[in-house]
Amino acid sequence: MRTRARYALLISLALAAAAVAAYGAGASVGGLSAPTASAIAPGATLDQSNPSRPSACAFHGWAPDYPTEWLAQTFTTGVTGTLTDVVLPLKVMSTTETNTQISVAIAPVDGNGQPVVATPLASTSVSPTTTTTATFTDVAVSFSAPAKVEAGKQYAIALNAPNGSIAWAADLGSSVKDPTGTPCADGAYSAGRAWGGGAGADSDFFFQTYTLATPPPPRPLRVTVAVKGKGRVTGAGISCPARCQTTIASGGKLTLRASAARGYRFAGWSGACAGLHVSCTLRPRTAVKVVATFRKRHS
User: Fold this and answer.
1) With a threshold of 0.70, does the pTM exceed it?
2) What confidence tens digit (pLDDT) does each residue in 134-175 have?
3) Closest CA to 157 of 87, 74, 231
């Protein structure tokens, strides 16, 4: 068996498949209590997913040995927004040691792709109950102060479980073989990898992320003004006939005012504006054109 410093491989021939249980905020799930500060936020959707699956070999998880060490999985976000929740397949190995609280964080990633756990973007904790678990169970972890993430950038889920009391299920990579000589599965998640305790580039922890997408900024729309006769139309960004085009956000407000030149009168609006009143207020949803007509006064 290959030895990895500071982390212990979990050996369980009878438990090659990770068990999946329903989860909910505040519920005790498989010996773990999910935080009650927030459940998966309304509107948050599944972004990145590397769900649990049977292991090719007897090894299917890592448990940290040292209180100050972390396990981490890097991932690449698909949407810009706030990362509200992660789901991790975990297993309670022991509840007899002291200081068994689990820390879970979203961390930035440096230029080499390594997690920077010293400066987390969001963090929370999960506490084991007094019951150990025989199987891995999907546990939802919510962040009351979610991390802001950008589409296409890498981040990391980092887990600290003092005294090796908690295990995180993983594909450990085909470079690792169990006592029967069976190679473990390579990680199937291509946009990141497992880190910690000498985990190889061909390994991945199982995980899912939920993100509340940031709405895109309002689409700018073009407003075009034309003047017939002698007069002016003014408004934000408009002073026609000198400057007759401007842009406005979809649904934004723009008020235009018509002023006739000496000897002329305002005869009315056409296009996106109508009527004889000298002012017109627009709230366009598409590009619009406005025409102001001025006619010569008759003596």
Assistant:
1) no
2) 788 888 888 989 999 999 999 999 998 876 678 899 998 888
3) 74
Number of domains observed in the structure of the chain: 2
DSSP lists the bridge partners of residue 125 as 103
Other beta carbons less than 10 A from residue 119's beta carbon: 8
Q: For residue range 224-265, what is the model confidence (pLDDT) as tens digits?
A: 999 999 999 999 999 999 999 999 988 899 999 999 999 999
> 3-state DSSP call for residue 161?
coil
Same domain flag for 52 and 196: yes
Distance from the Cα of residue 104 to its chain's centroid? 16
**C-alpha span between 187 and 255 (Å, rounded):** 58
In a domain, 174, yes or no: yes
> Rounded distance, CA 159 to CA 294, Å?
72
Whether residue 106 contacts residue 88, with contact meaning beta carbons closer than 8 Å, is answered with no
Closest to 92 (Cα-Cα) out of 171, 12, 36, 30: 30
CB 174 within 8 A of CB 186: yes
